[in-house]
Amino acid sequence: MTTDVQPPSVRWTKQEVPGAGASAAHLTLSNPRQRNALTMGMYDQLELACEEIDADPEIRVTVLRGAGGRAFAAGTDIREFRGFTSGADGVAYEKRVGRAVERLAAVRMPVVGAVEGPAVGAGIALSVCCDLVLCTPDAVFGAPIARTLGNCLAPAVVARLYASLGRARTLRALLTAELIGAQEALAAGFVQEVVEREDFDERIAATCAGIARGAPLTLAALKEADRRVLAASAPGPADDLYELCYGSRDFREGVTAFLDKRTPDWQGR
């Protein structure tokens, strides 16, 4: 007997928003067997999907979520790192991922993050690019890379986390590799609502309807204003940081240990 397993993908569909005279794009991260961890191809598909969504004048709001309801996105699929041999590989990876992340942040109309379960690593990077985030009580946020892989986080993502979570909470989560629960994320203002699973889809739909009834030029202008405010404090290039971490023995050890399901042996080199 064969099992029909769909390849990892980022796909989107368009649905009319009742009573709004407009449509919503439903953008889905799909790699359920790896808790929707993103492959390189998925990052490229995400970038393309955002281009397509922006090209459709009927779309007034986008919902981003993970397939299957068990996870939003559990980082990058670690198997993608097995072929890395130098810091240059890390620089190329971060630039490729950065294009997708920045393209999501630049979507012209509002983006609602619908987070169920973990949004970690790349998952938190994508969720912090959303304009509103709603989550279920089991949602967790973080980037425990100091404990797992030994790589680093893009300064642009750190800057967005500072703006959404605050510097103290962000540094605590990153330096201790702790995950932030739904209620703490709500208290920090990173999450706007924590909604029980049985009511989640209905609340997402209601949020989209509320946005879609707004004046489209105003929605676009508010998004652009937000981008300009954040751009005023944008950090500079970080290729030196990427070279340092991705070119290290520790990063190769982190990837191997993760795939072998053991604790890494960090040596600081």
Describe this structure in a few short sentences:
This protein has 269 residues and is of the alpha/beta class. It is 45% helix and 17% strand. A hairpin with a 4-residue loop joins β1 (9-17) and β2 (22-30).
Structure, explained:
This protein has 269 residues and is an alpha/beta fold. It is 45% helix and 17% strand. It is built from ten helices and ten strands. The protein has a six-stranded mixed beta sheet with strand order 1-2-3-5-7-10, with helices on both faces. α1 runs parallel beside α2, α2 packs across α9 (239-246) and α4 (155-165) crosses α5 (167-176). The mean pLDDT is 95.
Keywords:
single chain; 269 residues; alpha/beta; six-stranded mixed β-sheet; four-stranded mixed β-sheet; 10 helices; 45% helix; 17% strand; globular
Strand order of the largest sheet: 1-2-3-5-7-10
Percentage beta strand? 15-25%
What's the mean pLDDT score? 95
Q: How would you sum up the global shape? A: globular
Structural class computed from helices and strand pairing? alpha/beta
* Main sheet attributes: strand count, strand direction, barrel closure: 6 strands, mixed
Residues in helices, as a percent range? 40-55%
SSE string:
EEHEEHEEHEEHHEHEHHHH
Q: How many beta strands in the DSSP annotation?
A: 10
* Count of separate DSSP helical elements: 10
The N- and C-terminal alpha carbons lie at a distance of: 48 Å
Show unreliable segments: none
